[in-house]
Design goal:
Layout lengths: L1 H20 L3 H11 L7 H11 L1 H4 L8 H7 L1 H9 L5 H4 L12 H4 L19 E3 L4 E3 L5 H6 L16 E3 L11 H6 L17 H4 L5 H5 L16 E3 L2 E2 L19 H18 L12 E3 L1 H16 L7 H15 L1
Antiparallel strand pairs: 1-2, 3-6, 4-5
Helix pairs in contact: 1-2, 5-6, 13-14, 13-15, 14-15
The structure holds heme C (HEC) (6 copies).
Length: 330
């Protein structure tokens, strides 16, 4: 049905172009142009089907289209943010977005700008600043992901051994989107402890396109990989195509028990945060003025929890952040 509607629309535009140009050579070149992408193949359809299954399409967070949120949650806000030189969304967009759309083809690609192959170019491929720490990272094609999948900046930014800090709300913390910072080994409250902070991990230094190499590896239907960007559908359907080049016989993400270990550290830290009245049993922050080590430990817990990879993105940095926070709270 969708293809049929698309076809009809293409035809309408085509006829319109023919009428406008009086069927001279220009319209012939328009056919050639459109045909480069709109032909009998299922290339576009396959990617649409994958995208439709992605959380980018199924999630409802794009309803967050007010100034502070639109830069990462709507396509329109993101394009505006890029036009403003990638400034933090809250500064780039004065007003909210009308008729918002979630991250989609037009967020990441130039669709219908030049009407040729260059339209599939990514809207940003240059290095990205992790706003929380100011560090500039280069994830290749993954830079576009890092624009949105990085922590939100909350004032005051925590400093080790700094002043007391007010936890202002139950949703206080680095937001749900901490992945790029963890990959880069930056953004944590680096309280001293028994585990050294080794920031660089091979998953950043050896994987040129970072996020894209693992998350967009060969698609399996609309379940994992490709434009679904999913790593797992269920325990039997895991996206290891991007791993096998380096981990030849991999069957689980929990290599050498890394995820089990990080999950254990998260549980241990959570128990300490509850015991210290920094979070409640439902995992939400308890507002109030607390020491920098206390707020820092809570921040660190949320940073690794929200990363969602249980250490796969950067096992060493995740381990150091959690273990040293545990020691600081004991
Ligand atoms: C570089 C590839 C490319 C070229 C060239 C191209 N299109 Fe498209 N077009 C797309 C993609 C990709 C989509 C799907 C966008 C989406 O799903 O959001 C699309 C969607 C459409 C749609 C469906 C409605 C919409 O906007 O989503 C129409 C109509 C359309 N194109 C017409 C044309 C016409 C007419 C031309 C030539 C003047 C053309 N396209 C040239 C890639 C292309
Ligand atoms: C415009 C900002 C933006 C860009 C660019 C972006 N994302 Fe997202 N991503 C989001 C938002 C927002 C969500 C959550 C959507 C929702 O729940 O409504 C999300 C969700 C996801 C999820 C699902 C997470 C979950 O908890 O289910 C994955 C995986 C993901 N993105 C990977 C990527 C990858 C890989 C890239 C780069 C190729 C990328 N994203 C680029 C904003 C973005
Ligand atoms: C720096 C980019 C960025 C900004 C700014 C931002 N978000 Fe998000 N947000 C994301 C990304 C990316 C995700 C998906 C993370 C994931 O699932 O791992 C997300 C996830 C969410 C989710 C969880 C979605 C779900 O379905 O589980 C909510 C709710 C949310 N954001 C609300 C907001 C609100 C409200 C604002 C503005 C006050 C905001 N966000 C500002 C990037 C951002
Ligand atoms: C969140 C960002 C994002 C969204 C949304 C997205 N793409 Fe992509 N797309 C990418 C990235 C990154 C690549 C590069 C993947 C690679 O090189 O392995 C890519 C690759 C492609 C390619 C191959 C490009 C080439 O040069 O051969 C096509 C075609 C494409 N996307 C079309 C689409 C269409 C159609 C949609 C909507 C249905 C879409 N994309 C949605 C990020 C995105
Ligand atoms: C080394 C491969 C690899 C790289 C590189 C990578 N990821 Fe992941 N990512 C994973 C794995 C594995 C998981 C955990 C999936 C699981 O346990 O179900 C994950 C989890 C996630 C999640 C949570 C997914 C969910 O469904 O809850 C998001 C969001 C995410 N990654 C985004 C990114 C972004 C953005 C980047 C780049 C800044 C990135 N990833 C780089 C492998 C990778
Ligand atoms: C470019 C090569 C490369 C790719 C691609 C890659 N890894 Fe790794 N990974 C490594 C190397 C090398 C190590 C060991 C690093 C060390 O100990 O210093 C490692 C370590 C790990 C670890 C920590 C446990 C251990 O054995 O040290 C996990 C977990 C992991 N990788 C999971 C994955 C998953 C899951 C994927 C795919 C989604 C993936 N990796 C993709 C190179 C890679």
């Amino acid at each position: 049905m969708r293809k049929y509607i698309v076809f009809l629309s293409v035809l309408t535009v085509f006829i319109y172009v023919m009428v406008l140009t009086g069927c001279d050579e220009e319209s012939v070149s328009a056919v050639d142009t459109c045909g480069a992408c709109h032909d009998a193949s299922t290339e576009i359809l396959a990617l649409q089907i994958q995208w439709e299954a992605s959380t980018h399409a199924t999630g409802d967070a794009f309803e967050r289209s007010s100034a502070n949120c639109a830069g990462c949650h709507t396509s329109e806000g993101f394009r505006e943010m890029l036009a403003m030189g990638g400034e933090p969304p809250s500064e780039a967009i004065d007003e909210g977005i009308d008729n918002p759309t979630p991250p989609n083809c037009r967020t990441c690609h130039q669709i219908h700008s030049n009407y040729d192959d260059t339209d599939y170019a990514l809207t940003i491929e240059t290095p990205v600043t992790i706003r929380l720490s100011g560090e500039v990272v280069d994830f290749g094609k993954g830079n576009i992901c890092a624009m949105c999948h990085q922590p939100r900046v909350r004032e005051p930014v925590l400093t080790v051994g700094g002043d007391d800090v007010e936890i202002t709300s139950r949703r206080w913390g680095p937001h749900h989107s901490t992945q790029a910072a963890i990959l880069a080994g930056t953004g944590g409250y680096e309280v001293p402890g028994s585990v050294p902070y080794v920031k660089q991990f091979v998953h950043k230094t050896l994987i040129d396109d970072s996020c894209v190499t693992c998350h967009m590896a060969t698609a399996f239907g609309d379940k994992i990989g490709g434009h679904t960007m999913k790593m797992a559908h269920d325990s039997d359907t895991v996206n290891v195509s991007g791993c096998v080049f380096c981990h030849a016989d991999i069957e689980t993400f929990d290599l050498n028990g890394t995820q089990t270990e990080i999950a254990g550290l998260l549980d241990e830290l959570k128990a300490l945060l509850i015991a210290n009245n920094l979070i409640d049993n439902s995992g939400l922050a308890v507002p109030g003025i607390r020491s920098s080590d206390e707020t820092g430990s809570l921040f660190n817990y949320l940073l690794i929890l929200e990363d969602g990879s249980l250490g796969v993105h950067n096992p060493r940095y995740s381990r150091a952040i959690l273990q040293n926070s545990i020691e600081a709270l004991r």
